Amino acid sequence: MFKKIDRNKLVFFGGLIGFFLVIQVLQLMGIVTSFLSTILSMGTVLAIVSLGLNLIYGFNGQFSLGQWGFYAIGAYSAADITYRWSNNQDTSALMVLLFSVVLVGGAIMILYRTLSRLRGLDALSAFVVYLLATFGFVFLAVKIGGALTPAMNAVLGALPTWLSFTIVYILAVLIAGLVAAEISFLFGLPVLTLGSDYFGIATLGFSIIVKVLLDNSDTLLGFEEMKGARGMIGIPKVDDWGWFAVFAFFMLVVVVTRNLLHSSFGRAIISVREDEIAAKAMGIDVGFYKTLTFVIGSLFAGLAGGLYAHVNAFLHPDTFNFIRSFDPLIVVVLGGLGSMTGTIFASYAYLLVVEWLLRQILPPGFENWRFVVFPVILLIMMLLKPNGLFGNFEMPFLRQLLPPLKKKPAAESAAAPQEAAQ
User: Fold this and answer.
1) pLDDT tens-digit readout, 114-146
2) Do 329 and 53 meet the contact criterion of CB atoms below 8 Å apart?
3) Among 223, 254, 314, 400, which has the highest number of CB atoms less than 10 A from its own CB?
4) Coil/strand/helix, residue 365
């Protein structure tokens, strides 16, 4: 017998799939233009980034402004992989980054178990150990990846063009997320010991550092194809099934976030936000859950960056400046801290209002005034509804529901009062 499908789950996934199909049909009919379709894709990408920030800030209580930096890392990592393959039939970036994330990730897990047993080891000393191990394994990954690149070129070159690019594209997005996650772990080791405000400033500094490195990526880092401050061109744009890929990753992120929050890990993550001292008193490893949340949130940002690179097909460092780093924060606050429903809705609302509606309403030549009008709207909304549009509201599937009480058999119910009387 098939297990009965939960009604809330059916409504949620049915609604998402229905939304996706409606957009697809409207695109085929020409009602949804390519410009509006790009905005919807960008809204989905922004939702993925903002869900990661909501996990860090809304559910774990860490005020972070570094989400945009990890978003940039994911974008350029994925773009470099697909650029080399689509233009030169070269998988060197794919192989090097693949072995880097595998070897460095394995080293991090082994070192974490080993160093956690050492008492009295401060965060900076542990950071130095992790950093040295990372440099060593990245050097090894460059050697292994370079040796295996010709074989991978031959394997993918034998496949049909569409299939080989699909494999490279999916691997590029996944690797981009893992690269951002591992960098966030290394960055978070010394920084997560800071208080909330200082942590926010440190993460903002990280985003600025990433932007400066991208400005000089062709000279300082040696990636000539990224062209530094001129912007990276030649990135393959995924048109035919790009909306499907973006929406599939979005659904995956939503399900992972929902299941994480409903697990014992999720309850521990929220307990750190509610009272860090009480969480420590109850035996919760606060440092571990802060690191876990920060890494997962950065993983989502890296995935979103990889998707963005192929929606826009052009990357420029100014896209990732510190002013734009406030976009996911605006979305999280607008939708409501600790509300996945609010974050998803606000992501689409933010881009549709700023990039589409206000462009239509404002007279020609005054398009940039949308960056004045929307903050005024946001300010008014914060005064009238400080908890955000949705506050703590969640759709039934995203909200953790208590299981119904089991009904006792009639014989047991009748025997219970008699036993109590005796």
Assistant:
1) 888 887 778 888 889 999 999 999 999 999 999
2) yes
3) 254
4) coil
